[in-house]
C-alpha cells in the first residue's frame, strides 16, 4: 500500500493507492511506500482544489464496500462543486432510506474527492466523519461557495 500526503487548509491529507486506483483519503497521514505518478497527480489535484483552481477531480477511484455503498458514492460524485443535496434526495436516487444514505456517507473511504461534505440533512448540516467533524464540513462548503449555505 502506497500513501502520499499533502498539506491542505483542512490538515495533512493522505491518498492511498492500491492496484492503480485511489482507495482511501486519510486525515493526518504520512507518506509510506512508493510515491507513484498517480499519488503525485492526486496530491496535485488536492492542492489545485484547495487553491480554487480545480472544480472536479479526475482520478481513478476504487470504493471498497457493497453495491449500495458504491451507488451512494456515485451519487455524491455527481453533485457539482458549489451545490448540495440532502440525504433524502440521494436516498430517492438510490432507492433507500435517508438514514442508510447517511450511514454510507459516513463510511465514505475517499472524502473530499468523493464529496460527502455536499450532502446535508433536510433541516441541518448532518454529520461528517473526517477529522474535525462538522467544522471541516462547513469549511469545505464555504471553500466551494455552496449555494444557499447560510453559515
From TrEMBL:
It catalyses: a 6-O-methyl-2'-deoxyguanosine in DNA + L-cysteinyl-[protein] = S-methyl-L-cysteinyl-[protein] + a 2'-deoxyguanosine in DNA; a 4-O-methyl-thymidine in DNA + L-cysteinyl-[protein] = a thymidine in DNA + S-methyl-L-cysteinyl-[protein]. It is found in: Cytoplasm. One of its GO terms (molecular function) is methylated-DNA-[protein]-cysteine S-methyltransferase activity. InterPro entries: MethylDNA_cys_MeTrfase_AS (IPR001497), MethylDNA_cys_MeTrfase_DNA-bd (IPR014048), MethylDNA_cys_MeTrfase_DNAb (IPR036217), MethylG_MeTrfase_N (IPR008332), MGMT (IPR023546), MGMT_N_sf (IPR036631), WH-like_DNA-bd_sf (IPR036388). The keyword Glycoprotein does not apply. The active site is at 116 (nucleophile). Its EC number is 2.1.1.63. One of its GO terms (biological process) is methylation. This enzyme catalyzes only one turnover and therefore is not strictly catalytic. According to one definition, an enzyme is a biocatalyst that acts repeatedly and over many reaction cycles. NCBIfam families: ogt. Belongs to the MGMT family. This is Methylated-DNA--protein-cysteine methyltransferase.
Amino acid at each position: 500500500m502506497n500513501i502520499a500526503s499533502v498539506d491542505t487548509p483542512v490538515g495533512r491529507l493522505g491518498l492511498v493507492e492500491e492496484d492503480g486506483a485511489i482507495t482511501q483519503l486519510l486525515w493526518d497521514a504520512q507518506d509510506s511506500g512508493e510515491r507513484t505518478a498517480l499519488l503525485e497527480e492526486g496530491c496535485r489535484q488536492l492542492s489545485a482544489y484547495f487553491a480554487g483552481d480545480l472544480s472536479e477531480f479526475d482520478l481513478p477511484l476504487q470504493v471498497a464496500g457493497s453495491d449500495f455503498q458504491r451507488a451512494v458514492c456515485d451519487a455524491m460524485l455527481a453533485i457539482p462543486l458549489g451545490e448540495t443535496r440532502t440525504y433524502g434526495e440521494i436516498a430517492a436516487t438510490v432507492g433507500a432510506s435517508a438514514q442508510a444514505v447517511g450511514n454510507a456517507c459516513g463510511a465514505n473511504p475517499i472524502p473530499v474527492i468523493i464529496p460527502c461534505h455536499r450532502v446535508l440533512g433536510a433541516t441541518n448540516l448532518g454529520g461528517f466523519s473526517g477529522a474535525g467533524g462538522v467544522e471541516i464540513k462547513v469549511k469545505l462548503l464555504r471553500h466551494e461557495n455552496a449555494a444557499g449555505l447560510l453559515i
